[in-house]
Design goal:
The chain is of the alpha+beta class and 193 residues long. It contains seven helices and eight strands. A hairpin with a 2-residue loop joins strand 6 and strand 7. The longest helix has 24 residues.
Length: 193
């Protein structure tokens, strides 16, 4: 399926850039393969309903093919954002890793990573759920803990628990805490307001 997704993603990229039907030679050049290999794959993609292909004219994505391509592009943006903004990797290394991961993750995994990186400033995708925040960056309000490192378990910070944030103060079970950035930057919360 990885090769199929690479073709659909390439077709999508060319369609978006050139705003026209994608030619076999365009794909061959982008993917670094022979035009005959592209033709063979386009016939397979057409049989599976991912593209509409006419020899000597070109190819366009069907709604199904477009859905797969957009999903893969979204996964790529999510992981690239995570690698650059959260792990501090270079753009080049992040792009390479994202290209590999985008084909091997489930929607559930992508959603969980999206949850970690979601914020009003996040540009990874339009679909990010902005109700999730890193506690450190969350505005004042009431939240449910979604993810917390094991080290905060001793303090009672567990998934499912409700907390209230007011400035630098965090209230959990009516006990007040001032968490160090080391902890508050690793706790993901969901807004209840």
């Amino acid at each position: 399926m990885e090769r199929v997704e690479e073709y659909l993603e390439a077709i999508y990229d060319i369609q978006e850039k050139k705003k026209r039907v994608v030619k076999t030679n365009d794909l061959a050049k982008k993917l670094g393969v022979k035009p005959s290999s592209v033709t063979e794959m386009l016939l397979k993609l057409s049989e599976k309903g991912f593209v509409e292909y006419q020899p000597y004219y070109g190819v366009v994505l069907t709604d199904e093919g477009l859905g797969v391509a957009k999903r893969i592009k979204r996964f790529h943006r999510i992981f690239e954002t995570f690698f650059v903004d959260f792990l501090g990797l270079s753009k080049e290394e992040s792009h390479k890793l994202s290209c590999e991961l985008e084909h091997h993750v489930t929607d559930e995994v992508a959603e969980k990573v999206c949850m970690l990186i979601s914020s009003p400033e996040c540009m990874a995708c339009d679909e990010c759920n902005r109700s999730f925040h890193i506690l450190k960056n969350a505005p004042d309000g009431s939240y449910e803990i979604v993810v917390a490192p094991l080290i905060t378990k001793k303090l009672g910070f567990l998934p499912g628990k409700i907390l209230k944030k007011s400035g630098d103060n965090v209230f959990l079970d009516e006990e007040g805490f001032i968490l160090e950035d080391e902890f508050s930057s690793k706790i993901v919360v969901k807004s209840l307001d």
